[in-house]
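My main concern about presentation is that the manuscript never shows what a single data entry looks like. Each protein is reduced to its one-letter sequence and a matching series of backbone shape codes. For the editor and my fellow referees, an illustration may be useful. For illustration, here is how one protein appears when written out as sequence plus structure tokens:
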Amino acid sequence: MRGTDLKAIERPCGGCGKCLLGVRRLSRVKLATSSPERQRENVLTAAASVGAHIIGWADDWEVSGATDPVTRPSLGPWLRDEKGPYDGLIAAAVDRLGRNVVDCLNTGSKMRAHAVGLVGDGEDRIRCPARRQGTGRPTARNAAR
């Protein structure tokens, strides 16, 4: 986004209701790939476009899209509430969250049941309610607004 300092989009969770976890995944990491950096830039731009910020990254490299997000090495602990509070997930594309749109929607459905937000970049954008702030109850804010 023009005029936006993407580095300012990364900061700790402040309880603002728009604290998102950036999700990146690659099935195969190759020396010549620039995909991790492109995914990072896309996630930061998408977060800025909804007025949110990134509190951390769930980077799953060498992980198939067929792997259940809850069992992924980096994303799984966040989804199982083993990490700190966050208001939602944001990814460069739905296929970074699952094998296909159906997998992503299943993950989104599970997240919605726990009041977790899900935001995708560009035309993949999915809107769900915001995540609870460690209380077990949904917040009144919407991470995708």
About this structure: The radius of gyration is 14 Å.
